[in-house]
Amino acid sequence: MNVGLQHDKRGTRPSRRLWQLLALAAVATTAATSCGPNTDAYVALQNAMKSHITNVDHRPVASVSCTPHVHDTMREETAHLRCLVRFRDGTSYTASAAIRNQNSGGTHNRPDAYTWDSPPPAG
């Protein structure tokens, strides 16, 4: 299908079909960039902490909130954050956390590595 140079009957404007395709492409691009690898790094860290502490440490987490809000890290760089972890039993603790970009000049497309302080014993 050739949509690049179609014009309406008057020959002065691009066809309605072209505009529909452009609008559809814009919606698809927006949808594709709002999830997956474009998730902010601090959100991915919060999700990893909540999952790990709940499932591995067996301490049900209600929420994790980390600052600063780090969008991404540069190659071989580490971002340092403070995270407030709230448990479902009403207790909480503050953890020092880090997001390390594992990509270097020789490696590419490696996921970020996350570390954080372990929660105190339940008590």
Describe the structure.
The structure is a single chain. This protein has 123 residues and is α+β, with helices and mostly antiparallel strands. It has two domains: 1-34; 39-116, Nuclear Transport Factor 2, Chain: A (Roll). Helix content is 27%, strand content 24%. The chain has helices spanning 16-33, 41-55, and strands spanning 61-67, 78-87, 92-100, 113-116. The chain has a four-stranded antiparallel beta sheet, with helices on one face. Strand 2 and strand 3 (92-100) form a beta hairpin.
What distinguishing features does this structure have?
Nuclear Transport Factor 2, Chain: A, globular, 4-stranded antiparallel beta sheet, 24% strand, disordered N terminus, alpha+beta, 123 residues, 2 domains, 27% helix
Question: Could you give the topology of this structure?
Answer:
Elements: H1 16-33, H2 41-55, E1 61-67, E2 78-87, E3 92-100, E4 113-116
Antiparallel strand pairs: 1-2, 2-3, 3-4
Q: What CATH first level of the largest domain would be assigned?
A: Alpha Beta
Order of helices and strands: HHEEEE
The strands making up the biggest β-sheet line up spatially as 1-2-3-4
Average per-residue pLDDT, rounded, comes to: 79
Cα-atom Rg, whole angstroms? 23 Å
The helix content, as a percent range, equals 25-40%
**Biggest sheet architecture:** 4 strands, antiparallel
- Structural class based on helices, strands and sheet pairing: alpha+beta
